[in-house]
Amino acid sequence: MSAPVIMVVEDEPRIAEVMLAYLAHAGFASRYLERGDAVVSAIREAEPDLLLLDLMLPGVDGISICRDIRRFSSLPIIMVTARVEEIDRLLGFEVGADDYLCKPFSPREMVARVQALLRRARPEATAAAPPLFEHDRDGQRIRCCGQLLNLTPQEYRLLAVLINAPGRIFARASLLEMAYSGSGEVFDRAIDSHIKNLRKKLTLVLGEREAIHSVYGVGYRFELT
Question: Which pTM value belongs to this model?
């Protein structure tokens, strides 16, 4: 089996050199572009397995590139940026980015995120495994490892949104809208309290395995680790 191909789009040669070296050491094949205006045509010509895309690029910025790619491809995309403001992160996810790396970042973390996203993007990697979570939509119940979880109505709605989109990063505002339909009874930061309670209940079943991960400055992601 050939090595997965990672396209790196980065206009700082020193950073790109480190990224490419660590990807090669991890067993990946790489392609490198320095300008944003060459990315979409290159992907249309030969689509890689994953894209590491810098936000600020000469020619065309990363947000515009991501938006254009999502018109024709579900290619896994990790945005790389030194701009850590929440609005930049949310805008990136709205146009279809799958994950973020904030500069300065550890090259080892980059490789780990690439590996994790590729696993999520390959359905054959998970198809053979029995589901740990069973969602009974009609009965509004969720089982974990065959055990019925004792959830409040709000916890059920929140967990249902998360488990039905594994790997996706949700902003608190998005969870508020999707899980509670804009209910006036639940406020943005109350999501954190419900997540805390869900984690406690899941720990009773999963032990040390984590299912709900915090994504700094953005919100939460469901992924068993």
Answer: 0.59
